[in-house]
Amino acid sequence: MTYARADLWYPVKLPPVMISETDRERLASIATAALTDRWRTAAASNLLRELDRATIVPDAQLPANVVAVHSRVHLRDNITGKESRITLVLPG
After folding, report:
1. pLDDT of 1 above 60
2. Closest Cα to residue 66, out of 29, 27, 16?
3. Which CA distances in Å does 28 have to 19, 24, 25, 38, 43?
């Protein structure tokens, strides 16, 4: 992936993505279904592209430090200092 800045093109190194087989199947199904909705096509395409470059691992082999569907995560905004806890869920 590259981004433009003035007349320069420079590569952007994306962070690695790791996902469990189950989460990959769920997200791929949601994204594929969303491709038929013109308002969601771009987001669905981006999600499918990320799934394509992800490392897929069996559910039992997903490391404990990888955020997955149903993970509870502690967040901290580095600017405001506000902290919150969220649970990552699927849409719908």
Report:
1. no
2. 16
3. 12, 6, 5, 17, 12
Residue 11 has pLDDT above 90, yes or no: no
Structural tokens at position 5:
């800045």
Tokens of 6: 């003035």
Q: How far is CA 11 from CA 8, 20, 47, 49, in A?
A: 10, 28, 20, 17
pLDDT averaged over the chain? Answer: 91
Give the up-direction half-sphere exposure of residue 31: CA atoms within 13 A in the CB hemisphere.
17
State the Cα angle at 21 between 17 and 24, rounded to 5°: 60
Confidence (pLDDT) at 43: 94
CA neighbours within 13 Å on the CB side: how many for 50?
17
CB distance 68 to 56 below 8 Å:
no
The pLDDT of residue 19: 97
- How many residues belong to the chain? 92
